């Protein structure tokens, strides 16, 4: 995938626009090329974690960056629940778009799709728990 980072990032940006990913509003002043460079860098880090079989560490690092408001270009309050669920869909769709370039066996593809589902579900669950917990702390109520 290293040789296809630009195409990978273009696919994510294209789907993000098609689905009106809400967080894109916070990026209105950024040129397409700047968005692409940010996407490539972000994708490189994201995919490196996965290539090293460090999916849990990727989830944790991502959530810590959100908690500490260290996201590139956007503020943590710009990210909402719809962004999380749509990004899960966008990432899965992007993985599936490129999967046939790396695997031809149906058995391998089905196994990889299962791994992708587990990873993305875990990521979405952790992000949801974090947002609910943060909202509960701010409002002074129980998260559930």
Your description of this structure?
It is a single chain. With 144 residues, this protein is an all-alpha fold. It is 69% helix and 0% strand. It has one domain (2-139). The protein has helices spanning 5-18, 32-51, 55-67, 81-99, 106-139. The model has no long low-confidence stretch (mean pLDDT 88).
Topology (SSEs and partners):
Layout: H1 5-18, H2 32-51, H3 55-67, H4 81-99, H5 106-139
Helix pairs in contact: 1-2, 1-4, 3-5, 4-5
Shape: globular
- Class computed from helices, strands and strand pairing: mainly alpha
Enumerate the spans where pLDDT stays under 50 for 5 or more consecutive residues: none
Counting DSSP E segments of at least 2 residues, the number of strands comes to 0
Helix content: 55-70%
What characteristics describe this protein?
single chain; mainly alpha; 69% helix; 144 residues; 0% strand
């Amino acid at each position: 995938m290293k040789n296809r980072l630009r195409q990978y990032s273009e696919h994510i940006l294209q789907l993000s626009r098609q689905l009106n990913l809400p967080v894109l509003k916070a990026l209105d002043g950024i040129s397409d090329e700047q968005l692409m460079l940010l996407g490539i860098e972000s994708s490189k880090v994201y995919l490196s974690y996965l290539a090293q079989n460090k999916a849990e560490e990727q989830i944790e690092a991502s959530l810590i960056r959100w908690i500490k408001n260290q996201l590139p270009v956007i503020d943590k309050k710009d990210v909402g629940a719809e962004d999380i669920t749509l990004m899960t869909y966008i990432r899965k769709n992007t993985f599936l778009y490129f999967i046939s370039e790396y695997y031809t066996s149906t058995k391998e593809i089905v196994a990889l799709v299962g791994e992708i589902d587990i990873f993305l579900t875990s990521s979405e669950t952790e992000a949801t728990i974090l947002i609910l917990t943060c909202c509960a702390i701010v409002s002074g109520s129980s998260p559930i």
